Amino acid sequence: MKKNLFLLLIPSILFSSPYGGTLYISTISDPKSFNGIISKESSTGEAIGFLFEGLTDRDGVTTEIRPCLAKSWDYSKDGKVWRFHLREDVKWFDGKPFTADDVVFTYNSLIYNDDIPTSSRDVLTIDGEKLVVEKVSTYTVQFTLPKPFAPLLHQLGQAIFPKHILEKAVKEKAFSSTWGVDTAPQKIIGTGPFIMTEYRPAERIVYKRNPNYWKKDKKGNGLPYIEKIVMLIVSDQQAQLASFEAGETDILSVMGKDYAYLKNKEAKGRFTLANYGSGFGSNFLSFNQNKLAVKQPKLAWFSDISFRKAVAHSIDKEAIIKNVMLGFGFSQASAMEEAAKFFYNPNVVQYEYDLEKAKKILEKAGYIDRNKDGIREDAKGNPIKFTLITNAENNTRRDIGVIISEDLKKLGFNVGFAPIDFNKLVNMLTSSCDWDAMLIGLTGGIEPHSGKNVWESTGELHFWNPEPGNEEKKKAWKEGLSLWEKEIDTIFNKGAGELQEKKRKAFYDKWQVIVSQQLPLIYTVNPATLYAIRDKFIGMKPTAYGGCLHNLEEISIKPKWR
Distance of CA 170 to CAs 32, 37, 165, 281, 499, Å? Predict the structure, then answer.
């Protein structure tokens, strides 16, 4: 009797179901597409990230590779033949079973389809050779490699797509226009923990819990716990802050300049503010060296290493960290962020902020203010005039751009700074190639090979000097490649095939040094990982690597917040 009375007195929260509630988040750009194979921008990945999964994934806390759609794997002694044993309890959103056919289709018909422009192909080729992907049985797939490939398990985090939904579009050569943002959300079919149910441009994307998701908790209960996700689409980072402060969203990636402001509101706002240290995500300046798109004299300036070195010496990283990030930032000189730990090389060329040194470099290279009008001219008398662009929605980059452009003006450059819409910027970067200088960033990560699509000369995102699509022009372009670009091609191929970690690191250390010497990307700063998180969650484990939602399916919402 006493025992029953005691049970009645225990707070009901201890017996409440972990299911239910809504997670509210925000983004600063509409997705450009729902097609993850052809996308080259983060907005698409952000919109469909809850919907798709790969054969493997990486633990957001330990960063170790773990099984996902593949429950296990084994490989030959020479490391060239890998067999992946797939889960047999996975269903697509429409109820169809996930099988080896979907894996083979994703790789052979999408990634390795030369008619489909995809960055995934860059990181899943070895010395230019494709992996041979074959079905062994309904739930077994075999990958045969031309040689051992160290990043394989990491790269197999590549999302898998449904053959029964997309095969027709591939056969009709219409895949690249499939799953655009005009597609009904219910037709985007994945295997992930959430299903997209609604998309209203410039307003919101809504997701509901996948009731047939394959993951279970330790007690055998189905995951995820959260019932619904609402992703608000707002105009910029300032609007994200306003939405969070108004209680409209639950998680905010905090800019350094807002840290103190939010700290004073932490208790009353019922949220927790935390600093998770040096993070991923770079901010860099790049000049367009595309010989087919950039006219003279700009092409001569942008291709001149002396010009780029002078610019590197004109970037006041300390001022950016102090005035834009209010101390919550880190100077970056290497192509890998410090947060990458093992593969990060700090021993690269550093360009201290020194305008006088920058001016001397320019004068020695023939960039002189010959008519004393305050603007330098090149050796042929052309005034140095160009436009620097960035994505307008990113307040941090806008503020960084103001500081950089002002210092470039002090060098004697006529610089116009023009923040523009993100999707327009992506189009200029990957299609029209009509730009002078750009301040943008990449998401970063702990595996260097993931950047092969940027660093390999033929990579889909080798944007400062892209391979032309015209077959007649490819030969001339290839002959005109610089020796250092060719050397980076060699490094990435050799690095991928080296299985000894220390030797592999030596390759990527050299790559980082070359980038710092040649400056195709001029790095500025990367932010500290700051999050403000509403006090409504159980099981959230934020990290610099994984963010707040790396274990989304395991996160639940406290009953009083549902």
Answer: 20, 12, 10, 34, 36
**What span, in angstroms and rounded, lies between the C-alpha atoms of 66 and 157?**
10
Distances (CA, A) of 262 to 158, 236, 320: 37, 18, 20
Q: Is the full-model pTM beyond 0.85? A: no
Contacts of 79 (CB under 8 A, 6+ apart): 145, 148, 149, 499
Residue 296 has pLDDT above 80, yes or no: yes
The pLDDT of residue 11 is above 60: no
Cis peptide preceding 224, ω within 30 of 0: yes
The identity of residue 335, as a single letter, is A
| Per-residue pLDDT tens over the stretch 242-292 | 999 999 999 999 999 999 999 999 989 999 999 998 888 899 999 999 999
Which two tokens mark 229? 């996700």
pLDDT at 194 over 90: yes
pLDDT tens-place string over residues 454-507: 999 999 899 999 999 888 899 889 999 999 999 999 999 999 989 898 999 999
Do 252 and 240 meet the contact criterion of CB atoms below 8 Å apart? yes
Percent of the chain with pLDDT over 70: 97
Residue 281: predicted pLDDT: 86
Strand order in the sheet with 414-420: 414-420, 385-391, 437-440, 284-287, 521-523
CB neighbour list of residue 165: distance below 8 Å, 6 or more residues apart? 92, 94, 187, 189
Backbone angles phi, psi at 49, to 5 degrees: -60, -30
User: Computed from CA positions of residues 325, 328, 329, 330, in that sequence, does the dihedral angle turn out positive or negative?
Assistant: positive
> What is the rounded CA–CA span in Å between residue 39 and residue 32?
8
Q: Calculate mean pLDDT across residues 509-533.
A: 97
Rg of the Cα trace of the chain? 25
DSSP character string of 243-254: HHHTTS-SEEE-
Helix, strand, or coil here: 129? strand
Nearest to 419 by CA among 398, 403, 436, 435: 398
Q: Are strands 228-233 and 22-27 parallel, antiparallel or unpaired?
A: parallel
pLDDT digits (tens, 9 = 90+) for 99-131: 999 999 999 999 999 999 998 999 999 888 999
Tell whether omega for the bond before 117 is within 30 degrees of 0, i.e. cis: no
Q: Indicate if the alpha-carbon torsion angle 200, 206, 212, 57 is positive or negative.
A: positive
Strands 521-523 and 70-75: unpaired
Does the pLDDT at position 1 exceed 50? Answer: no
**Whole-number Å distance between alpha carbons of 462 and 445:** 18
H helix intervals, 159-277: 163-171, 237-245, 259-263
